[in-house]
Amino acid sequence: MRLVGVICTLAVMAGAYFFFVKPALDTTSDAVNKFSEPFNGINEQIDRAQDQAEAAQQQALQQGQPGGANGVNLSKLQQCMSKASATRNTAAVQKCARKYGAR
User: Fold this and answer.
1) Secondary structure class of 101 (helix, strand, coil)
2) Under a CB-based contact definition with an 8 Å cutoff, are residues 102 and 69 in contact?
3) Which of 2, 66, 77, 85 satisfies CB 3.0 to 4.6 Å to 100 for a cystine?
Protein backbone atom coordinates (compact mmCIF):
# COMPACT_ATOMS: atom_id res chain seq x y z
CA MET A 1 0.00 0.00 0.00
CA ARG A 2 2.84 2.42 0.84
CA LEU A 3 4.54 1.61 -2.45
CA VAL A 4 1.43 2.66 -4.38
CA GLY A 5 1.37 5.97 -2.49
CA VAL A 6 5.04 6.65 -3.24
CA ILE A 7 4.56 5.83 -6.92
CA CYS A 8 1.49 8.09 -7.16
CA THR A 9 3.33 10.93 -5.43
CA LEU A 10 6.26 10.59 -7.83
CA ALA A 11 3.87 10.49 -10.79
CA VAL A 12 2.11 13.69 -9.66
CA MET A 13 5.45 15.44 -9.08
CA ALA A 14 6.73 14.36 -12.51
CA GLY A 15 3.52 15.57 -14.14
CA ALA A 16 3.77 18.94 -12.40
CA TYR A 17 7.35 19.27 -13.55
CA PHE A 18 6.67 18.39 -17.19
CA PHE A 19 3.43 20.39 -17.49
CA PHE A 20 4.24 23.50 -15.40
CA VAL A 21 7.87 23.93 -14.40
CA LYS A 22 9.69 22.85 -17.57
CA PRO A 23 7.59 25.00 -19.96
CA ALA A 24 8.08 28.04 -17.74
CA LEU A 25 11.85 27.49 -17.66
CA ASP A 26 11.98 26.98 -21.44
CA THR A 27 9.99 30.16 -22.05
CA THR A 28 12.28 32.14 -19.76
CA SER A 29 15.39 30.75 -21.44
CA ASP A 30 14.03 31.61 -24.91
CA ALA A 31 13.16 35.15 -23.81
CA VAL A 32 16.64 35.74 -22.40
CA ASN A 33 18.29 34.36 -25.55
CA LYS A 34 16.15 36.55 -27.83
CA PHE A 35 16.94 39.60 -25.70
CA SER A 36 20.69 39.02 -25.86
CA GLU A 37 20.87 38.41 -29.65
CA PRO A 38 21.26 42.10 -30.62
CA PHE A 39 24.24 42.41 -28.28
CA ASN A 40 26.25 39.61 -29.88
CA GLY A 41 29.31 41.00 -31.60
CA ILE A 42 29.35 44.39 -29.88
CA ASN A 43 32.69 43.68 -28.22
CA GLU A 44 34.24 42.80 -31.58
CA GLN A 45 32.93 46.03 -33.13
CA ILE A 46 34.34 48.08 -30.28
CA ASP A 47 37.69 46.30 -30.53
CA ARG A 48 37.84 46.98 -34.29
CA ALA A 49 37.04 50.66 -33.74
CA GLN A 50 39.73 50.91 -31.08
CA ASP A 51 42.24 49.21 -33.36
CA GLN A 52 41.41 51.68 -36.14
CA ALA A 53 41.81 54.62 -33.77
CA GLU A 54 45.15 53.30 -32.52
CA ALA A 55 46.33 52.76 -36.09
CA ALA A 56 45.39 56.35 -36.97
CA GLN A 57 47.22 57.57 -33.89
CA GLN A 58 50.35 55.57 -34.74
CA GLN A 59 50.26 56.82 -38.32
CA ALA A 60 50.00 60.42 -37.12
CA LEU A 61 52.88 59.95 -34.69
CA GLN A 62 55.04 58.37 -37.40
CA GLN A 63 54.34 61.29 -39.72
CA GLY A 64 55.34 63.68 -36.96
CA GLN A 65 52.25 65.82 -37.18
CA PRO A 66 51.38 67.31 -33.79
CA GLY A 67 47.73 67.82 -34.69
CA GLY A 68 47.47 64.36 -36.14
CA ALA A 69 47.36 63.00 -39.65
CA ASN A 70 44.77 64.44 -42.03
CA GLY A 71 43.35 66.76 -39.39
CA VAL A 72 42.84 64.07 -36.73
CA ASN A 73 42.74 65.57 -33.24
CA LEU A 74 44.45 62.68 -31.46
CA SER A 75 44.05 63.74 -27.85
CA LYS A 76 40.33 64.40 -28.21
CA LEU A 77 39.86 61.23 -30.26
CA GLN A 78 41.68 59.17 -27.66
CA GLN A 79 39.67 60.65 -24.77
CA CYS A 80 36.41 60.11 -26.60
CA MET A 81 37.30 56.53 -27.53
CA SER A 82 38.34 55.75 -23.95
CA LYS A 83 34.99 56.93 -22.59
CA ALA A 84 33.00 55.16 -25.29
CA SER A 85 34.85 51.87 -24.97
CA ALA A 86 34.52 51.90 -21.18
CA THR A 87 30.74 51.83 -21.59
CA ARG A 88 30.90 49.33 -24.49
CA ASN A 89 28.73 51.70 -26.55
CA THR A 90 29.26 51.03 -30.25
CA ALA A 91 27.27 54.09 -31.33
CA ALA A 92 29.46 56.32 -29.16
CA VAL A 93 32.64 54.80 -30.65
CA GLN A 94 31.35 55.48 -34.15
CA LYS A 95 30.39 59.03 -33.16
CA CYS A 96 33.94 59.62 -31.87
CA ALA A 97 35.39 58.36 -35.14
CA ARG A 98 33.13 60.68 -37.14
CA LYS A 99 33.68 63.70 -34.89
CA TYR A 100 37.44 63.50 -34.32
CA GLY A 101 38.55 61.16 -37.07
CA ALA A 102 40.30 61.89 -40.34
CA ARG A 103 38.79 64.61 -42.48
Assistant:
1) coil
2) yes
3) 77
Name residue 89's amino acid.
N
Measured torsion, CA atoms of residues 84, 68, 52, 98, in degrees rounded to the nearest 10: 60
Residue 70 CA to its chain's centroid (Å)? 31
What pLDDT digit, counting tens, does each position of 34-88 carry?
888 888 788 888 888 888 888 887 877 776 555 545 556 777 778 888 887 777 7
- Burial group, residue 98, by CB count within 10 angstroms (0-12, 13-18, 19+): exposed
Domain extent listing, the chain: 2-39, 42-100
Q: d(Cα 98, Cα 83) in Å, to the nearest integer? A: 15
* Closest among 90, 3, 100 to 48, alpha carbons compared: 90
Tell me the whole-structure pTM to 2 decimals: 0.38
